[in-house]
Amino acid sequence: MIAYRLICKDGHEFEGWFADSTAYAAQAQAGDLMCPVCGDASVTKAIMAPAVRTSVTKAKGKTPGTVPELQKQRQFVAGFRKFIEENADYVGPRFPEEARKIHYGETEERHIYGESTLREAKELIEEGIKIAPMPPDPNELN
Ligand SMILES: [Zn+2]
After folding, report:
1. Cα of 138 to ligand 1 centre, how many Å?
2. What is the pTM of this model?
3. pLDDT tens digit string along 6-32?
4. In the chain, N or C: fewer CB atoms in 10 Å?
5. CA angle, corner 140, sides to 17 and 125, nearest 5?
6. How many angstroms is it from 126 CA to the middle of ligand 1?
7. Rounded Cα gap, residues 47 and 11, in angstroms
């Protein structure tokens, strides 16, 4: 999995997770990428400028913004994964099947996570089922 910083033509920036750069290219070409803010489909890769978001708050004797961006991203990803692992049922490769059952009210409504192929994920999205890609385990990055 790789993360791309994407931008729509109105300038909304957001992050997209893809299996690899080919998956990104395929979705971009098919017009499958959409801005989560305004729904615009003219989405392109944002220029990977060092994303420095320093707080405006005056630090009292402390140097702000010294946490490297990658470190912050890892903390975010780790937190997100932890939330999923603690609050969702792991259903493994039965993910698409379970997601459908929940969507159509055939089983108890709950958070689940598991594995699916890109094709299965796309089909779920087309059926209006809300799913999100799981960020990779930070310990497995690099
Ligand atoms: Zn937008």
Report:
1. 28
2. 0.46
3. 999 999 998 888 888 888 889 888 888
4. C
5. 25
6. 20
7. 12
